[in-house]
Amino acid sequence: MDQQPLAFRMRPQHIDDIIGQEHLVNEGKILNRMIQAKRLVSMILFGPPGTGKTSLAFALARSLDIPVKKLNAVVDKKKDMEVVAEEAKMSGQVVLVLDEVHRLDKSKQDFLLPHIESNRVILIGSTTSNPYHSINPAIRSRCHLFELHRLTEEHMKTAVHRAAQDDEKGLGDQKIRLTDDALDHFALASNGDMRSALNGLELAVSSTPADESGIITITLDAAEECMQKKSFTHDKDGDAHYDVLSAFQKSIRGSDVDAALHYLGRLIEAGDLDSIERRMIVCAYEDIGLANPQAGPRAVAAADAAHRLGFPEARIPLANAIVELALSPKSNSAYKALDGALSDIRSGKSGDVPAHLKDTHYQGAKEMGRGITYQYPHHYTEGWVNQQYLPDALKNSHYYEPKNTGKFEQALKQVHDNIKTEKNNTR
């Protein structure tokens, strides 16, 4: 029996075997173009765990029959890199697949740089971290950066089917029957991590006895046990899922933190990180807005952290963000004001820009009456001067109605009301 894990055995041998990452490997895309041109360059592959960074690196090297060596920036020493460089001198070129490339220390980096610059060593580094934040600029500037996306459920199903049917590297020498529910669960519970799905499949097959006909039937119960995750109660693409998403957003808007966390938990169990991130960010700007303006950037940061971490750790930044969003004061005044302005524009109420606001950065502008009476607000003590900004047709229009929620918008309301009073007094 082959002792190598199924996920290892199923690693692609050629770029055409890659599942997913169509934006990089499909016909006409950048990595495919490199293979067609028979010229690889050093690169950093970054993305969530299980998206096939190392597999893609090996497939690229093998597609061009270039010798390939794999090292880890944390575990392996400078001496190991020296061995790779010597082999590159003898063979002409070597692909160095370097895991955890963001952990490369200065001495190893300084050794590699001249070999990378000469293209004798083609570095293909892999990392789950953002290379712009974590990788030394000296290495980063010498490499192309390619982001790998989380694999979809369809990608996962393709990988599971391929592994179950492959006679040479997979489990095709056994009679395996996967129920539809089991296949769906492998695809969903792995949350885009192909290694996790294949590990679960291998465990399910090895631990399930064959029936009298020699057929190993993998049921949903077996898939749940081997993935150590229960099947969720609603279809990710069904109406119930959208009901949960709706309840999630409305619970945040309604400041019910317990309900918001409950629906967050259901969405986590469904593995729908993308929808969680979108709803979380839109809540921060639509429902909280100016009442707590820092909620927006923090929601984006939490979404980015969750995306990098993947489940189960992703639940931690998500929980922090949802508690803040649910308990923040709420205001939709900013986007409602914009909607009012858009409504006027779309109904044909716009008018010409007042002459004193028009561009003056060209010869002859003054002769055309552009900008002559414009008053520069910074020349006034209050940093504000009463002059017309809206077109004549809309000069009395009023869109923004500040709410008295949250200290930030309360401060904006005070400024807004003071300006409004000054305008009324000078009419």
Q: Notable features of this structure?
A:
Helicase, Ruva Protein, domain 3, 19 helices, Zinc Finger, Delta Prime, domain 3, alpha/beta, five-stranded parallel sheet, nucleotide-binding, Rossmann fold, 427 residues, AAA_ATPase_RarA/MGS1/WRNIP1, 8% strand, 4 domains, two-stranded parallel ribbon, 49% helix, P-loop_NTPase
Give your account of this protein's structure.
- This protein is α/β, with parallel strands linked by helices and 427 residues long.
- The chain folds into 4 domains: 127 residues, 3-Layer(aba) Sandwich (Rossmann fold), CATH 3.40.50.300; 75 residues, Helicase, Ruva Protein, domain 3, CATH 1.10.8; 89 residues, Zinc Finger, Delta Prime, domain 3; 75 residues, post-AAA+ oligomerization domain-like (Orthogonal Bundle), CATH 1.10.3710.
- It is built from 19 helices and 7 strands.
- The strands form 2 sheets. It has a 5-stranded parallel beta sheet with strand order 2-3-4-1-5, sandwiched between helices. A two-stranded parallel sheet has the order 6-7.
- Strand 3, helix 6 and strand 4 form a beta-alpha-beta unit.
- The protein is globular and about 90 Å long.
- It starts with 5 loop residues before the first helix and ends with a helix.
- The model has no long low-confidence stretch (mean pLDDT 89).
- This is Replication-associated recombination protein A.
- InterPro entries: AAA+_ATPase (IPR003593), AAA_assoc_2 (IPR032423), AAA_ATPase_RarA/MGS1/WRNIP1 (IPR051314), DNA_pol3_clamp-load_cplx_C (IPR008921), MgsA_C (IPR021886), P-loop_NTPase (IPR027417), RuvB-like_N (IPR008824).
- Keywords: ATP-binding, Nucleotide-binding.
